[in-house]
């Protein structure tokens, strides 16, 4: 029999606090944890990187799990632009009292070289209280939790007040075929929703193991890549020249490393620093956060706060060299050298604005600064695209996050945040779908290993997130 969540049942859903605090999950939670772990392990052990992996394999594996759980084939659609880049769209039908809720999560991961890791990146390894593997925190943990929640709801006969749609997609990390963009262009009707929940973050920031801030991402920076290149005539390596391509490029990158983009405030990061100063930070740090909000901002306070890269990332545009290539022979002067510079652009600036600024920073006519599009095409001019305007914060989303976070991480304050990265939320917001990003995993600031070597997530945090997410979605979709 299909069930509607009553007020009493909703209270029970939110009352996981006592059991969770006591470390005694309910039988239903334990079964859901086991399912989430199995899905998590399966996804980690499928290579979904752009160069050697296959997103379709992971999406098809999830599709089978949904079909086995009783979802109709029409509600579990596997579709995409090519055989390696298929996305999975799942729908749990509700009463239709409200417009649908869309959940999004990407299945692809960044590259991982086995020789760089102490474990196999494509095996889920449990060690010292952590799960290791590529995608453990970005973001196959979220994919597993999302799938487990929907399967649990289906098995419990839960009938939400609105359809719940989940999109598991390709190429958020890069590649030819961003899944959310493809779905919006080709099958908008499958994912159209009143609002969107995105899990692509590790939102609960801890210090020395104590969670202090639960970040709700209200807006994002914009991602852009640029190619810096130098070409010259080269020559015999026995006759060194100071103007060889590698030296020329190195000087340009040194100038860039010493350059600091201007400090900027908007409504989101201003509110973030205000809340941090009043509710989280202490002493000099709190005083400095208040001081940078003055007009003009206090220069010394800004300099002190800028020693912390976490602060820098939400204050200004940042650009960093991420790839290098150069030379053609060991015994020849390099005729060409190239670098990829990755920028995270503060809202209000276009990709072309930043390209032109990079030209000024490099200050060398021998160094070409060109824009790299998402599909890898290199051009002499960037686009006029800017970061999208943030969606207004929904009261129901904030209330659910605040009440559940208070139980899961009692000392953490829920604070809207400007994401220094970028995610698929930029596409859904631009399409008119208000999107809220929150990944319920606590991580120490200096322990975030997303995109890095030996990526990992704390075992306890994975299961806490699994139970949290089920209740989060239940509260937002209850009758």
Number of domains: 2
Strand order of the largest sheet: 1-2-6-3-7-18
- The CATH class label of the largest domain is Alpha Beta
Largest sheet: 6 strands, mixed
- CATH H level, superfamily name of the largest domain: Zn peptidases
How far the N terminus sits from the C terminus, by CA atoms, comes to: 16 Å
Low-confidence stretches: 1-22
Q: pLDDT average, as an integer?
A: 92
Q: What are the key terms here?
A:
16 helices; Aminopeptidase; 5-stranded antiparallel sheet; 2 domains; 479 residues; Alpha-Beta Plaits; alpha/beta
Please explain how this structure is put together:
The chain has helices at residues 7-14, 16-21, 27-44, 55-68, 140-156, 179-186, 188-191, 245-258, 267-280, 283-291, 299-305, 309-315, 351-362, 395-408, 425-430, 459-477, and strands spanning 76-79, 87-92, 101-106, 125-127, 130-132, 164-169, 195-198, 204-207, 210-220, 222-231, 235-236, 318-326, 332-333, 336-345, 368-372, 378-379, 413-419, 435-437, 442-444, 456-458. With 479 residues, it is an alpha/beta fold. It folds into two domains: 7-219 and 392-477, 3-Layer(aba) Sandwich (Aminopeptidase); 222-261 and 317-379, 2-Layer Sandwich (Alpha-Beta Plaits), CATH 3.30.70. The strands form five sheets. The chain has a six-stranded mixed β-sheet, with helices on both faces. The protein has a five-stranded antiparallel β-sheet with strand order 12-14-10-15-16. Strand 8 (204-207) and strand 9 form a beta hairpin. Helix 10 crosses helix 11 (299-305). The longest helix is centred in the C-terminal third of the chain and has 19 residues, at 459-477. The chain is globular. It starts with 6 loop residues before the first helix and ends with a helix. The relative contact order is 0.18.
């Amino acid at each position: 029999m299909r069930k509607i969540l009553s007020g009493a049942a909703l209270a029970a859903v939110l009352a996981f606090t006592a059991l969770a605090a006591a470390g005694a999950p309910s039988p239903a939670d334990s079964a859901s944890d086991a399912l989430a772990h199995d899905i998590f392990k399966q996804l980690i052990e499928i290579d979904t990187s752009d160069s050697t992996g296959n997103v379709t394999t992971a999406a098809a594996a999830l599709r089978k799990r949904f079909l086995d759980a009783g979802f109709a084939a029409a509600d579990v659609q596997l579709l995409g632009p090519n055989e390696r880049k298929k996305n999975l769209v799942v729908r749990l039908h509700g009463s239709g009292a409200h417009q649908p809720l869309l959940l999004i999560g990407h299945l692809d991961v960044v590259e991982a070289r086995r020789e760089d890791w102490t474990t196999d990146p494509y095996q889920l390894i449990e060690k010292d209280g952590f799960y290791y593997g590529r995608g453990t925190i970005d973001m196959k943990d979220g994919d597993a939790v999302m799938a487990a929640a929907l399967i649990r709801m289906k098995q419990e006969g839960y009938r939400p007040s609105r359809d719940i749609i989940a999109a598991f997609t390709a190429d958020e990390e890069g590649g030819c075929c961003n899944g959310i963009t493809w779905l919006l262009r080709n099958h908008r009707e499958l994912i159209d929703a009143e609002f969107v929940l995105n899990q692509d973050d590790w939102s609960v920031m801890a210090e020395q193991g104590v969670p202090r801030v639960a970040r709700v991402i209200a807006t994002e920076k914009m991602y852009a890549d640029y190619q810096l290149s130098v070409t010259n005539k080269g020559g015999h390596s026995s006759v060194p020249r100071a103007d060889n391509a590698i030296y020329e490029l190195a000087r340009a990158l040194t100038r860039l490393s010493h350059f600091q983009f201007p400090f900027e405030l908007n409504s989101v990061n201003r509110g973030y620093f205000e809340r941090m100063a009043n509710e989280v930070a202490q002493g000099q740090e709190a005083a400095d956060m208040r001081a940078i909000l003055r007009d003009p901002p206090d220069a010394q306070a800004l300099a002190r706060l800028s020693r912390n890269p976490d602060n820098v990332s939400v204050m200004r545009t940042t650009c960093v060299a991420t790839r290098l290539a150069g030379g053609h022979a060991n015994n020849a002067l390099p005729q060409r050298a190239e670098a990829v510079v990755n920028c995270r652009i503060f809202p209000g600036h276009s990709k072309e604005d930043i390209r032109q600024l990079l030209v000024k920073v490099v200050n060398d006519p021998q160094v070409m600064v060109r824009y790299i599009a998402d599909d890898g095409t290199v051009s002499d001019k960037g686009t006029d695209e800017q970061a999208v305007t943030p969606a207004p914060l929904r009261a129901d989303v904030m209330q659910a996050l605040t009440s559940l976070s208070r139980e899961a991480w009692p000392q953490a304050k829920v604070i809207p945040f400007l994401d220094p990265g970028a995610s698929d939320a930029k596409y859904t917001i631009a399409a008119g779908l208000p999107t809220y990003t929150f990944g319920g995993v606590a991580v120490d600031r200096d322990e975030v290993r997303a995109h890095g070597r030996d990526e990992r997530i704390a075992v306890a945090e994975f299961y806490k997130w699994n139970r949290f997410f089920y209740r989060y979605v239940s509260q937002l979709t209850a009758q």
